[in-house]
Amino acid sequence: MNFLTHLIGYAAAIREFVSPTYRPERYYMRGPGPASARRGNSLGAR
Fold first, then answer.
1. Are 13 and 5 a contacting pair, CB within 8 Å?
2. In angstroms, rounded to a whole number, what is the distance separating the alpha carbons of residues 33 and 1?
3. Greatest alpha-carbon span in the chain
4. How far is residue 31's CA from residue 37's CA, in Å, rounded to a whole number?
5. Its domain of life (predicted)?
């Protein structure tokens, strides 16, 4: 059973190397956070 687990892990690693999956949540940026708002660096603030 242990050998099969390692074999499945290696197959998944090879598949990810050959054809990586795209996960948009890794690259999604929501914009400036609350610290930026406290500094007052927004475009409309004076």
1. no
2. 48
3. 66
4. 11
5. Bacteria
Which of 26, 28, 29, 32 is closest to 44 using CA atoms? 32
In the structure, what pLDDT confidence band is assigned to residue 19 with cuts at 50, 70 and 90?
Answer: confident
Res. 28: pLDDT tops 70: yes
Residue 5, sorted as left (phi over 0), alpha (psi -120 to 50) or beta, turns out to be: alpha
Q: What token pair was written down for 15? A: 């598949």
Please give the full DSSP string across 4-43, using - where no structure is assigned: HHHHHHHHHHHHHHHSPPP-GGGT------HHHHHHT-ST
Q: Does the global pTM surpass 0.70?
A: no
Find out whether 36 and 42 touch, Cβ atoms under 8 Å. Answer: yes
